[in-house]
Structures are given as structure tokens and as C-alpha cells.
Amino acid sequence: MLSRLMTNWVYGGFLAAFLILALIGVVGRDLPAALVLIALQLPIYMLHEYEEHDDDRFRRFFNALIGGGRELLTVPAVFIINIGGVWLTYLAAIVLAATVDLGFGLIAIYGTLVNAVVHLGAAAAKRSYNPGLATAVILFLPAGIAGLWLVSAAGTTLGFHMLGLTVSIGLHAVIIAYVLVRRRRLAVP
Q1: With 0-12 CB in 10 A as exposed, 13-18 as middle and 19+ as buried, what is 25?
Q2: 96 within 8 A of 103, measured Cβ to Cβ
Q3: Global pTM?
Q4: What is the rounded CA–CA span in Å between residue 137 and residue 73?
Q5: Are 66 and 37 within 8 A, CB to CB?
Q6: Helix 33-53 / helix 106-126 crossing angle, nearest 10 deg
Q7: Distance separating alpha carbons of residues 13 and 135, to the nearest angstrom
Q8: In the chain, how many domains are there?
Q9: CA 144, CA 166: separation in Å to the nearest integer?
Q10: Which residue range forms the structural domain that includes residue 85?
Q11: Given 3-state DSSP classes, what are the helix, strand and coil percentages for the chain, each rounded to the nearest 5?
């Protein structure tokens, strides 16, 4: 059962994104615009994940491009990265932004923006599409920039910006470290 969940999580996330968007549409009317944009980062990311991971597209693309066909990025790794690294991290950021300080929401906002920059950088370097690029441009950039603008306008301190950026870059660094360890174990040139 867990293997099916790890293989098919993206489809549940895609459908859940629409439910979360509908809930934000109802509940969000009574919330500050900055908090609404923070909350929107999660369902927007879930829609992005569908473009990226439908039919195991990103993992296959990554393993072909970076691993030379070897499995650097595994199915369980993709599951953990997206459920733990994205969904749970964004959920924590949203809850902390709503209950402690709006600045915690910058973890989700910078997560979205950093991922967009990674997709754009990869597309520029390869001069071609990569799975997730379209939603990174169409959804991540506008929602991330608007969220950054509104949260900053609410008087968020530099410390929260540094926290958001550090967590976001840190999550990507953990993924890179994982891939480098796998690469060494599999003796990929």
C-alpha cells in the first residue's frame, strides 16, 4: 500500500489543491491579504507538482539528464521531498504565519520563488523545457512575488526574510546532497 501511495501521491495532491483553493476562497475573505497569499502557496505548489511529477516525469527526466539513466532520484525520495519537504514545511509555515508571526510565511513564499528560479535556471542552461517549468512561470512567479510584496509591506523583519530564504535554499541543498551521495554510490561519472 505504501508503494502505491509513493507512486501516486501527486494525483491526490492535484485534487486536494482544488479543495484547498475552494476553502481559502471561503475562509480567506476574513483574513489579511498577505496571509491569504501565504496560504495559496501550498495549493499552487500542488498544481505545480502535477505538471512536474505526472507519469513520473520529473524523476525520469532528472535521472536521464543528471544520472545518465541511473536512478539517482528514487520514487521514495521524490515522495519524501514533496510530502515532507514541501507539504509539511508549507503547512508549518502557514500555521506559524497565522498564529505566531506573519513572517514565518516567508518560508513558503521563498520556497516557491527559489523553486521557480531553479526551473528557470535549468531551462536557460539547457535551452529547453523541464517538467514543472510552465507552472513555475505561470503560478510561482506571480504568487511568490505578490506574497513577498504583501508580507514585506506588513513590516516583516529582515530576520524572517533570511529565515525563509535559508530554509528554502537549505531544502534544495539537502536534495543536492542526497543526489551526490547516490551518485557516488552508483559510481555515476
Answers
A1: exposed
A2: no
A3: 0.95
A4: 24
A5: no
A6: 40
A7: 15
A8: 1
A9: 16
A10: 2-185
A11: 85, 0, 15
Place of cell 536512478: 71
DSSP state of 139: I
For residue 25, give the C-alpha cell: 476562497
Q: What are phi and psi of 67, to 5 degrees?
A: -95, 0
pLDDT in tens, 46-60: 999 999 999 999 999
C-alpha cell at 98: 497565522
Name the amino acid, one letter, at 147. Answer: G
- What distance in Å separates the CA atoms of residue 42 and residue 90, rounded to the nearest whole number? 6
- Gap between the Cα atoms of 57 and 76, Å rounded: 15
Q: Backbone phi, then psi, for 155, in 5-degree steps?
A: 90, 25
Residue spans of beta strands (DSSP E) within 24-123: none
- All 3 cell numbers of residue 145? 512575488
Residue 179: all three cell numbers together? 543526489
Burial of 5 (0-12, 13-18, 19+ CB in 10 A): exposed
Residue type, position 124, single letter? A
84-133 tens-digit pLDDT: 999 999 999 999 999 999 999 999 999 999 999 999 999 999 999 999 99
